Amino acid sequence: MKFFNLYSFFKGAALLSGVVLFPLSCTAQNHKNKVQYWLTKGDESVKLELQAPIRFVNNSNSLQNIEIDETQKFQYIDGFGYTLTGGSVEVINRLSPSKRKALLYELFGNDKNSISISYLRLSIGASDLDGEVFSYDDLPEGDTDVSLSKFSLAKDKALIVMLKEILTINPKIKIIAAPWSAPVWMKDNEKSKGGSLKPEFYSVYAQYLAKYIQEMKKESIVIDAITPQNEPLHPGNNPSLYMPSEQRGDFIKNHLGPVFKREGIKTKIVIYDHNCNKPEYAMDILKDPDAYQYIDGSAFHLYEGDISALSIVHKAFPKKNLYFTEQWTGAKGTFNEDFNWHTKNVIIGSMRNWSKTALEWNLANDSKYGPHTVGGCTECKGAITVSDSENFTRNVSYYIIAHASKFVPTGSQRIASTQTEKLSTVAFKTPEGKTVLIVQNGSPSDERFSIKFAGKTASVTIPGSSAATYIF
To answer: If you write DSSP's letter for every residue of 163-189 in order, what string do you get?
Structure first.
């Protein structure tokens, strides 16, 4: 398709009709002062819809200000997204080829019709949102495989195929991976649920994780980071593994770190990957200089605690990165409550507390909240619900992530923004030089405010219980 120059076309038409057009410099100036914004309301009457633009003016007003200061710069952003579980892959693959292709482009593309997901989390082996429990080295009861000669990614073949397709859509997408459990023959209870890693298998398990990274690389899939255990203090899931901080520290400093160093693996090691109520878990490990040298940072969820826990860890260890890697929306939640709570805490809260990522939990499931393992989550709601081969629904976490992922690409940097009693905010400068401001209104009533930036103000009204993303 060939595009023509609209300005030249209208200029020619104007000359014939005697109409005078504004010069391009004026147009550019008007564009510079224009603020585009996208809105989602908690009542679902508006979902990620582009609104009429507003404009910056030179005069001030008496409204409350949200002031943006681009001279105050904080962390760089790796991305926003979800966990691509085996269950997600299974249900997306139930779509017809055309619907499946369209959905993947909508999720991972970079055009006006896409939400531009830039970060994915994977499970190393099965998560509880796979249709069955498995590892990459499952054996008959009583057998062991210390040489990992039977290691195979075959159970993840469908996931690997989908990841390759996603990488053709967005070659720069970043991936973090986490195991829910070690192979059962490495565990003291020899079960997929609970139990701890036997000390005699620490070195073998380190090699198992290294082998996963190496085998994925052979498939042209680069794992940017791993956490050695998802939710290490929650042995009640299926699969799961209990790994307190002293075990994790020993495993990293004496086994995983040295294996990565010896084999030249550049994948980052990220610790904890559990709730904000126990930041001391991460700090206890980081206090050990022998472990510290191998660790890139710490990951958090928010099923317990407060998001400010990330800043506690940052203050104690400012050279280490922070990641927010999981938060679920459930079958019993309302759109209004989930959208506003997650936008305030997961998106805005994690970013204001130094996180490089903000990830919701499962990307997709079916209308019965499956697939899941026996004993896995029965109420976890994906960003997408696939109902049949031709139909899918966009759920609340789709819009939670989209308000950031669509506008804040990898490599953006958080900059300073003020907040008010009712308005939560976070601001970014993108690699292209655009400024992005996300605002969540925690009040049920409309709030009027001014965006104050570079000596200019733009007057805004944001509806009650809603969030908006402003770009200028």
So the answer is: HHHHHHH-TT-EEEEEES---GGGBSS
Residue 182 near residue 197 (C-beta atoms within 8 A): yes
Stated pTM of the model = 0.93
User: Does residue 21 fall inside a structural domain?
Assistant: no
- Whether 463 contacts 39, CB under 8 Å: yes
Collapsing DSSP to helix, strand or coil, 36 comes out as strand
pLDDT of residue 31: 60
The pLDDT-based confidence of 60 (bands split at 50, 70, 90) is confident
User: What are the respective helix, strand and coil percentages of the chain, to the nearest 5?
Assistant: 30, 30, 40
Cβ contact 373:238 at 8 Å: yes
Block residue for tokens 């057998």: 143
Which residue range is the domain that position 432 belongs to?
31-74+416-471
Q: Are 86 and 130 in contact (CB under 8 A)?
A: yes
The answer to whether 46 and 40 have CB atoms below 8 angstroms apart is yes
CATH assignment of the domain containing 399: 3.20.20.80
Give the model's confidence band at 382: pLDDT under 50 very low, under 70 low, under 90 confident, else very high: very high
pLDDT, tens only, 302-360: 999 999 999 999 999 999 999 999 999 999 999 999 999 999 999 999 999 999 999 99
List CB contacts of 323: < 8 A, sequence separation 6 or more: 78, 176, 225, 270, 297, 298, 299, 300, 355, 356, 357
d(CA 416, CA 467) in angstroms, rounded, equals 18
Please give the Cα distance from 322 to 18 (Å, whole number): 60
pLDDT tens digits for 21-50?
333 333 444 567 999 999 999 999 999 999
Pair 50, 113 in one domain: no
pLDDT tens sequence across 388-397: 999 999 999 9
Instruction: Identify whether residues 178 and 275 lie together within a single domain.
Output: yes
Specify the pLDDT at position 59: 85
402 near 48, Cβ under 8 Å? Answer: yes
Task: Give the tokens for residue 102.
Answer: 């369209």
C-alpha to C-alpha distance for 448 and 110, rounded to whole angstroms? 32
Q: Which of 410, 436, 459 is the last residue of a domain?
A: 410
Find the CATH number of the domain harbouring 36.
Answer: 2.60.40.1180
Q: Are residues 243 and 152 in the same domain?
A: yes
Characterize 430-449 residue by residue with b for buried, 16 or more Cβ atoms within 10 angstroms of its Cβ, and e for exposed. Answer: beeeebbbbbbbbeeeebeb
